[in-house]
Amino acid sequence: MQPTCVVAAYSADDYGRAAVEQGETIAREAGARLVVVNATRGDKLVDERYAHEDEIAALRERLVAEGLEVEIRHDVVPDVAEAVLDAARTCAADLVVVGVRHRTPVGKLLLGSVAQRVILDAPCPVLAVKPVKP
């Protein structure tokens, strides 16, 4: 069965770019809609994973030029993982793509992980990717 909607959790770093690239590839091959979610809780003065408006505009332009049907959700939300999960539920996603990063055992204990919550709570399969190191 070909996907009709793919959700990519995007952060403005190599991990988020890897998720969007994989989501883009899958959506293009399947002729599916791509929903990109870049969200922040807004509890920091600067959230390095929240993309600047110019970066979002360039991403949208590139994806549309590739011929994809794309929606980009770029919001301040109470819960980033819930924003990704909501996008997946809203478009009846067939797949969610998330970038995963290495965390220390203490980091896993003390800090919640958006990717972990999405993997465990998504209403569809989740593909976890990481950037390819040269």
TrEMBL record:
* Domain called UspA: residue spans: 6-130
Q: Where are the transmembrane segments?
A: none
Q: What protein family is recorded?
A: Belongs to the universal stress protein A family.
PANTHER family (UniProt xref): STRESS RESPONSE PROTEIN NHAX (PTHR46268), UNIVERSAL STRESS PROTEIN UP12 (PTHR46268:SF6)
| Name assigned to this protein | Universal stress protein UspA
